[in-house]
Amino acid sequence: MTTVLEILDKGTAYLAKKGIEDARRNMQMLVARQLDCTRMDLYLRFDQPLEEEQLAPLRDLLKHRGDGVPLQHLLGSVTFHRRDFKTDARALIPRPETEELAEWLLKNVKLPQNPHVLDMGCGSGVLGLTLAADLPGSQATLADLSPDALDLARENAALLEIRNATFVESDLFSALAGRTFDLIAANLPYVPETDRPTLSKEVAHDPALALFGGPDGLDLIRRFIPQAKGHLNPGGWLALEIGIDQSAEVESLLRAASLTDVLTLKDLSGIPRFPVGRK
Hints:
This protein is 38% helix and 19% strand. By secondary structure, the chain is an alpha/beta fold. The protein folds into two domains: 4-67; 78-278, Rossmann fold, CATH 3.40.50.150. The strands form two sheets. A seven-stranded mixed sheet has the order 5-4-3-6-7-9-8, with helices on both faces. Strand 3, helix 7 and strand 4 (139-144) form a beta-alpha-beta unit. Helix 1 (4-17) packs across helix 2 (23-35) and helix 2 packs antiparallel against helix 4.
């Protein structure tokens, strides 16, 4: 009979052969999901035999992961700023960089009491719902063009019992006429169309609508920044996440919109990733 350690070893070898990075960790996560335990618990259960009813679904998960289905989709959740969010093919898988942006905003941006916050292009809602949960008295609006993504964001709000958030289907600010905010955060599509052939199998499972921003990745951001200025309260902050080598042009767009205190913060890899400015 196959033990936990044996299936870990065999599954790791299979994923490595398929070119999956960090194959051991991936296999540990899949086995822990099947056994409803933590990765650390597995070390105490190496000798535990697995029944066929446990092995069959695990083999299915392993095949899908080997075919490039993202681990987060197979697990059904991702941890973001201490909370577990539901994730699936309806929206972009949350990236660690976006978590860095949320943490910087919560630590450094001074907002008025009961601030109004907008998460534009909210996807699964990780950024907007994190801000809603961690800013006392805030009212968060989460906007996205995709009704599927908004459904996922609503499910996450219900799962986490976050009640100070509303959801709006909108092409940028088209459904937000007359609304102003103290903070607008946006993780809009910024991948250049020319990068499409080079993307990993995992990234290819994200919705194209959430990834690609035209030939140089900035088509939507060029529309967004001039509109955003008119929806910021005096002293309000605008913050974005962008791709590699896009910071100079995005900073120019922010300054052209008459925003002040413009700078681009670097992510933990040293890449200029988060342009910010104030009205």
